[in-house]
Please model this.
Amino acid sequence: MAHLGISPDAASRRRAARKFLFGIPWVAVVPLVFLLKYGEVGPFGWGLTVFLIVFCVLAAVGLHFHDRTDLHTPVEPKGDWLDNISAFWLVACTFGPLVGWLCTALATPTPDNWQWFYGARVVFAVALPVITMLPCLRYVRGKGTPLMLAILLGVTALPVWSAWWTMRDLLSGPAGVHLVHTGVMLQRAQ
Model:
């Protein structure tokens, strides 16, 4: 915590937790900045806003419950391969949606390759966060179980939600739609 400028005493942590919570309204203006600068708020603007708000909430929760050892898990870390996988849970939840979005935003899907782009987005934004979250469940024990479950499931739900429509399109497959006035054949999911 010293690298964040937070003293190790409890009062300093409480002040820092309040600052993180009071920072949320300031972060909420990020879409307005995107709107004023670019005329629209795209997926990157909304994703950045959600990321910063969740970061503020998680930092405040971590600082608030730091000394509440009665709410910490009683299970000792095992240090096995499952712990190594679960160590990347928050990284997968943070950067998985970004990498998945880049897979579909930077390339133009065609009728021949759209499954690869959509599949990559689902792998990065859905599969990796869920797979890295599952080993964390073995530490959800004790008095803090509801809070631990809320954090694990809530944070994991965000990247899954970011790729929900892509996953549905990937599962349902393409459907041809012929636009009469332009003569163009478009691909869309039913």
Observations:
- Confidence is low (pLDDT under 50) at residues 177-184.
- The two ends are 50 Å apart (CA to CA).
- The chain has nine helices and two strands.
